[in-house]
Amino acid sequence: MPTEGIAELSSQGDMTSFAFGPHTIRFRTSRHLRRYTDIKEWDNGYLVVTADYDTLGKVEEYIDLVPVLRNLFFDPKEFLAPIKGVRLSYA
Questions:
Q1: By residue range, what is the domain housing residue 79?
Q2: With contact defined as beta carbons under 8 Å apart, do 17 and 35 qualify?
Q3: Domain annotation covers residue 16
Q4: Could you give the CA distance from residue 3 to residue 36 in angstroms, rounded to a whole number?
Q5: Number of domains within the chain
Q6: Does residue 1 carry a pLDDT above 70?
Q7: How far apart are CA 91 and CA 71, in angstroms?
Q8: Tens digits of per-residue pLDDT, 26-62?
């Protein structure tokens, strides 16, 4: 159920998805990633998450969305401004 100001993070195979509003941004990750299990921190485009790998188990990971957004020709300040938090989204 969508919540205003909340983005969604998920993964499938070697791809991570970050969705907010009408946009879903996908970027490659390790093929060993099983899934993200926890979002520890959201700081305006910077995520601290717990990721579960089939080779390492659960580890703390860091995702910086700003360079990803720039590479896709998004204005990071404009895109990130309305996002108040992030939740995991797995079917």
A1: 6-88
A2: no
A3: yes
A4: 20
A5: 1
A6: no
A7: 28
A8: 999 999 999 999 999 999 999 999 999 999 999 999 9
